[in-house]
Structure formats: structure tokens, C-alpha cells
Design goal:
- With 303 residues, this protein is an alpha+beta fold.
- It folds into three domains: 2-48, no CATH class; 52-202, Sandwich (Immunoglobulin-like); 205-303, no CATH class.
- The protein is built from two helices and 24 strands.
- The protein has helices at residues 2-16, 23-48; strands at residues 52-54, 62-63, 77-78, 82-85, 95-103, 108-110, 116-119, 125-132, 136-143, 151-155, 158-161, 172-175, 195-199, 201-202, 208-213, 219-220, 230-234, 248-250, 259-261, 265-267, 272-274, 279-281, 292-293, 301-302.
- A four-stranded antiparallel sheet has the order 1-4-10-7, with no helix packed on it.
- The longest helix is centred in the first third of the chain and has 26 residues, at 23-48.
- It is rod-shaped.
- Residues 1-47 and 283-301 have low confidence and may be disordered.
């Protein structure tokens, strides 16, 4: 880049008809300028830096069984720490009793009896307190100046979904909303944009079996059913347990004679148990292998 600047400078002087300035003098002129530009580049990142937000992960993949309307273990879940660390000493704007308000997504609530806030001692933040409402957290802080690096930590918060049947519709972020942001000025905290933690629910413990594909209505003794049964697992809210890899489903005859053969127990894969080789060999020897019979009927089961 320096050679290009020198070339342009010389070319312009030739076109103007003036005498050429010695190269040594030009180097002396450019070096101080280079140092100044370098100094500006070095410090511009600090001047424009935004506060660094570390989001908690405790609100990720909370079981629907923890929801308010659950009959199987309803309760709050620890969110984890929300940490705001200055990347520049000016990130937290100076002022007394300024407020930062964080709001839950729709369908969630805080435990109003839990939550605390802390900060590093002997720095610009001199005081901080917290007030937890059902859907908001208000942090009140005082900042005496902008000469030291500060860190603010919100901890101990607990969250709970209101309706476990909504599944993925319970997904949302904790935000600093423009309609209720508070009065604190914090560089890099964008209203409606900066996220302070993701909340979502997943299906609860499997509590029921549902029929996805019924077996063939009729079959030939000793021949694998043309249509094999396929079942899905569901939680207490009737939501498909698509993360279920723990349930084992066993097929058996509902009524009639004969022995169900093949692999009669299958593990749920993503909440789906698929049978592949079921057949029936009648115990009644008087019946021929070409006999037609009702082999298997799947029923929805709750446990």
C-alpha cells in the first residue's frame, strides 16, 4: 500500500509541473501518518466493542413432564447463569439505578422466589439488585464510571412451561424487549434482538402406544404378514415421543389359537417401533398351512 501512495503522489506532482519532492522527505512524512493510522486501528475495536453475553443452556430441551399442567412431575427447571462481560470499559453506560429488563417468551413463567445478581468488586459497577416477576427479570444497577472492565452475572433463575402439549411451539428466547427494555444503556444489547437464553420443551416420558400401521387383517399360516405392525410412543399429552430410544414394544396375539412367530419385541427408534417378520403358525394341527386366519390386532395401550 505504501508504494501505491508514493506512486500517486509523484504522478500528481509531475502533472502539476512542480518539482519532484525527494523520496526521503516523503518517507519522513508518511511514517508519522502510518503510526497514527495504526494507533487508530488498534483502538477502534475497543471503542466499538459490544458487551459479551453468555447464554445459559438449562432451558434447552426441558421435558414436557415439568410443565404446569403435567400430572407426572411438574416443576421448575434451573436456567443457569446469564453473564454480561464488557469487551470495552464503556459498554455499561454510567448512571445510578438503571434497569435492564429481560422478558420470557410466551408460554413460560419464572419462579418468582428464585434469582440473584452479582458483579465484580472494586470496578465501575457499584451496586446491583434483582426483582423476579412471573414473566420478567429486572436488574437494577449503578455504574460509577467507564474506566474498568465489569462483569454482571444473573444466576439462580428457574423457568417452567405453562402447557406441555405445545411441544415445539413452546420454543422461544429470553429478550430485552423494545416495549419494556428498562433504562440501562449497554453497548451491544439490541432490543428484540440480543438473546439471553433459549427455552424449549421436548416430549415427556412415553405413556402410551399408538397404532401407526395395523398388521394385515388376514394372513396365511406360516407366512410372514404382508403388512407388518408399526407403533408410535406418546407422552401424557398425546405428543409423539420422537426422541424415545428406550421403549421396547412386544407383540402378542389378542385372541385365537396359534403362536406368533418372528421377532416379537422391537426397540423404539425415534419413538417408532417397527416389526418386520411376524407370522403365525397355528397350534391346531388339523388346520392346513393354507388356512386363512385373523393374525394380530394392535390396540392403543396406556401405562
Amino acid at each position: 500500500m505504501k508504494n501505491k501512495i508514493l506512486h500517486v503522489d509523484v504522478l500528481c506532482q509531475r502533472q502539476a509541473g512542480s518539482s519532484r519532492r525527494p523520496l526521503s522527505n516523503m518517507k519522513k512524512t508518511i511514517r508519522p501518518l502510518t503510526l497514527v493510522l495504526g494507533f487508530i486501528a488498534l483502538h477502534s475495536a475497543q471503542l466499538l466493542a459490544d458487551v459479551i453475553v453468555t447464554e445459559p443452556v438449562g432451558g434447552n430441551d426441558i421435558s414436557a413432564d415439568k410443565s404446569v399442567n403435567s400430572t407426572n412431575g411438574a416443576g421448575f427447571t434451573a436456567l443457569g447463569n446469564i453473564v454480561l462481560a464488557e469487551a470495552a470499559t464503556t459498554d455499561f453506560g454510567a448512571g445510578n439505578n438503571k434497569t435492564l429488563i429481560l422478558t420470557l417468551p410466551f408460554g413460560w413463567q419464572f419462579n418468582t422466589s428464585a434469582g440473584s445478581v452479582s458483579f465484580a468488586n472494586s470496578r465501575d459497577i457499584t451496586a446491583a439488585s434483582i426483582a423476579v416477576a412471573s414473566d420478567t427479570v429486572t436488574v437494577t444497577l449503578s455504574v460509577s464510571g467507564t474506566s474498568k472492565f465489569d462483569t454482571l452475572t444473573i444466576s439462580g433463575l428457574q423457568v417452567q412451561a405453562l402447557d406441555g402439549s405445545l411441544d415445539w411451539m413452546n420454543t422461544g428466547y429470553i429478550l430485552n424487549l423494545s416495549q419494556n427494555p428498562g433504562t440501562a444503556v449497554i453497548a451491544g444489547v439490541g432490543q428484540d434482538l440480543t438473546t439471553f437464553g433459549l427455552l424449549n420443551t421436548i416430549p415427556g416420558t412415553p405413556r402410551a402406544l399408538g397404532i401407526n400401521i395395523q398388521p394385515s387383517p388376514t394372513a396365511t399360516a406360516g407366512v410372514v404378514f404382508a403388512q407388518q405392525p408399526d407403533l408410535l410412543t406418546y407422552d401424557q399429552f398425546g405428543v409423539w415421543c420422537y426422541q424415545d430410544y428406550a421403549t421396547f414394544v412386544t407383540a402378542s396375539r389378542l385372541s385365537g389359537s396359534g403362536t406368533l412367530q418372528g421377532t416379537t419385541t422391537e426397540q423404539a427408534i425415534g419413538g417408532e417401533a417397527t416389526f418386520t417378520d411376524l407370522s403365525d403358525n397355528l397350534a391346531n394341527k388339523a388346520r392346513t398351512n393354507s388356512a386363512i386366519f385373523q393374525p394380530l390386532v394392535c390396540r392403543q395401550v396406556r401405562w
